[in-house]
Amino acid sequence: MDVMTFNLRFDNKDDGANAWPLRRDLVKQLVKKYNPDVLGTQEGLWSQLAYLKDNLPTYHLHAPNRTFDPTCQYPTLFFHKDKFEAMEGGEFWLSLTPKVHRSKNWDSAFPRMMSYAKVRIAGDGDPVWVLVTHLDHMGTEARYQQTKIIADWVKQRTGPVILMGDFNDHPGSPVHGLLTSPETGLKDSWSVLGCKETSASMTYHRFTGVPQKTRMDWIIVSSHFRVKKTKIIKDSLDGLYPSDHFPYMVQLDWE
What is the pTM of this model? Predict the structure, then answer.
């Protein structure tokens, strides 16, 4: 199973030469090239998600019962239509009132959300929980509290789990430590293979192609999976990058 997490960068007019209309075709072509079985995106406005839905016909956009707010950035799951059957799913806000639209607490600069699906792999009876999220970029306390909500949710489920997203934090942080703790039962796909934490592993680049800050885009999985390969994708065309984050992709197999 190939899984990709991809912060799309929201459609921001102030991005100038890197604005969404100028790079959306690169996003589409990148997804087609690497052809992940599961894609989790962050920062997508509905107009951006609709573009991917219309231009990636082999994928199913999984957002059951979502009330689309055109100003909201949604973590969103896409699945290959011929490889997965969605059994159930939903989403909630990472706040003290998770059912309240765009609710936020602590020192969170923006409302943050988690989207999830329970899917069955075609030809296989084993269901998998797949989660995508985007933690706050400003609030240290908010990131930890948002992570506690996710970790508690994971602990209440049984079976395989794949969690992906932009966590806006660094490996070794309290956020990372909580998700990869024995109590939560997940492992970081990058570190489990012994991959090094260097400037080359940083996944944010501000449209420059030069890695910055830290490795903040993670795919974290339960012990049901064996991580076979990892790849930080740094494709560009004539100096234009699909996003200000590098997509991150892993290949998983069953243990």
Answer: 0.97
pLDDT in tens, 77-97: 999 998 998 899 999 999 999
Dist CA 66 CA 145 (whole Å): 24
Query: Furthest-apart CA pair in the chain: how many Å?
Result: 48
For the chain, which residues make up each domain, given as ranges?
Answer: 2-254
Structure tokens at 54: 């219309």
Long-range contacts of 136-139 (CB under 8 A, 24+ apart): 136/107, 136/108, 136/109, 136/110, 136/112, 136/168, 137/109, 137/110, 137/168, 138/107, 138/108, 138/109, 139/106, 139/107, 139/108, 139/109
The fold for domain 2-254 equals Deoxyribonuclease I; Chain A (3.60.10)
Determine the Cα–Cα distance for residues 158 and 13; give it in Å rounded to an integer: 43
User: Phi first, then psi: what are they for 28, rounded to 5°?
Assistant: -60, -45
Cβ of 93: how many Cβ atoms within 10 Å? 21
pLDDT tens column, 175-229: 999 999 999 999 999 999 999 999 999 999 999 999 999 999 999 999 999 999 9
